[in-house]
Design goal:
The protein is built from 4 helices and 14 strands. The chain is α+β, with helices and mostly antiparallel strands. The chain folds into 2 domains: 114 residues, Beta Barrel (Thrombin, subunit H), CATH 2.40.10; 119 residues, Thrombin, subunit H (Beta Barrel). A 7-stranded antiparallel β-sheet has the order 1-10-9-12-13-14-11, with no helix packed on it. Strands 6-5-2-3-4-8-7 form a 7-stranded antiparallel β-sheet, with helices on one face. The N and C termini lie far apart (58 Å). This is Peptidase S1 domain-containing protein.
Length: 268
């Protein structure tokens, strides 16, 4: 991130790692959402990330690290083994940024501790319009102002911005997202600090104004704002809850029909 402040320990933050070098796939963020699942941006699982390059290719199985803050920290003791990755079925179906989500299943449940704690997903009734300060907190190891990666985890408190402003800003450019209702955006801080390359996949953590509950409102997808563009663009998690729950439940193509069949035999 361009600017930002050194983060404290953020127990839901994951590092999704393919390689040190961006040219070889790089590394980015993810969010631990249960003891066996991490939510990240789908693009983080490919070496070359454009729709043209991704078509027909399988995602890479990344290394995943939990409980780390300093970037040189990743080591075998902080690595958690990956069982499989699940891309959203609509990933990049029309553009580079469509349905930019993936779930990573871990081989073993993580041991929840002071250092490693999942972040909740939105509950029904929790709305982005009702967050404390109209803002959220993003953490990441993304590039800074000199386009070099952060050596330690940083955070930014970013304002949520008007959907139509964000949509208008990026309209008509092939290099930026076509902002739809399954996305939302944050702007820069008053000091011009913003998300940058490598922050994608991190969760925008918000606090519900009514209950005080903290939850992940979005997963950062478009992290190329840096100094060039105004807005970071996120996948709006509330829009994707049916898919997330279905994957975590282990649903197959038959599950829905089998449930319906069982119910039909019991209902008058």
């Amino acid at each position: 991130m361009v600017g930002g402040t050194l983060a404290p320990h953020v127990p839901w933050q994951a590092m999704v790692y393919i390689a040190d070098s961006v040219l070889d796939g790089g590394y980015a963020g993810g969010a631990l959402i249960s003891e066996r699942w991490i939510l990240t941006a789908g693009r983080n699982l490919f070496v070359r990330k454009s729709r043209l390059d991704v078509q027909g290719k399988d995602p890479v199985i990344p290394k995943v690290y939990l409980g780390i803050t300093a970037r040189p920290d990743p080591n075998a003791s902080k690595e958690v083994a990956v069982e499989k990755v699940v891309l959203h079925p609509g990933f990049q179906n029309r553009s580079d940024w469509d349905n930019d989500l993936a779930l990573i299943q871990l081989k073993e449940p993580v041991v929840v501790s002071d250092k490693v704690i999942p972040i909740p997903l939105p509950e029904s009734g929790q709305d982005l319009a009702d967050t404390v300060g109209g803002s959220g907190v993003l953490t990441g190891w993304g590039w800074g102002i000199l386009l070099t990666p952060a050596t330690s985890l940083k955070y930014l408190v970013l304002p949520l911005v008007n959907h139509s402003d964000c949509k208008a800003e990026y309209k008509g450019s092939e290099l930026t997202p076509a902002v739809d209702d399954d996305m939302f955006c944050t702007g820069p801080t008053k000091y011009g600090e913003n998300v940058c390359f490598g922050d994608a996949g991190g969760a925008l953590a918000v606090t519900d104004a009514e209950t005080g509950d903290i939850y992940a409102a979005g997963i950062l997808s478009y992290d190329k704002s840096c100094n060039s563009y105004k807005y970071g663009v996120y996948m709006k998690i509330s829009s994707y809850l049916p898919w997330i729950h279905s994957v975590i439940r282990g649903d197959t193509e038959k599950s829905s029909a089998l449930r319906s069949d069982a119910m039909s035999k019991m209902q008058p």
